[in-house]
Fold:
Amino acid sequence: MKKLLLLFLLSAMPAGVFAQEEPAVVRVRRPFTPQHELRLTAGAYPLLPSMSDWEGCAAGIFHDRTHRGPVYTSGTWSLSYDYRFKKWFDLGLTFSYYGEYSRSYSNRDSSLVGRNRAHAVTVMPMARFTWLNRRWVRMYSSLGLGATFGYGRFDTEGSRPENAMIAFQVTPVGISVGRSFFGFAEIGLGAQGALMMGVGYRFNPKNKRAK
Structure:
């Protein structure tokens, strides 16, 4: 009789009374690993002294004996290294090159009288602030301040002007897509240009995968 009563009570209980609850999944947050980053950037429309500015500075005045033909530019090419201290903050150094080339012609008979060349090298520390950080996509802003060293050779005047000026770069919006190897595009203002695109590579000291 007791066995029948016990079997009856067990059968009347809900099926889940004696079921074990599954343990909750606990996500462990991995510690951040600092990263190195290398970038190659091509930029357009930089804020730098133009060839005519350098020639005018060297000659004192603009002469009316010659006229210049089309001016060709190399665009701004930059190589940079960054160290990512935190997920939201990078600090690095950028080297940039920009060149202009043209020919000068006589106003009397339009004959070639000289070739003009101007070069500018910029050295600039940069700080980058990441405000959107996803597995494959990052969005950021950056700020740089440094110096531009210019050199020009103008055959029409026999001059070799050299100058130096403060350089800056402000980038309100930049986006990179990828992990170890990535591509990026930026909109800004300064010595590197107003429109910039490039490729880069990220790695860290312990050779672990980027977070």
Summary: Residues 66 and 106 are 5 Å apart (CA to CA).
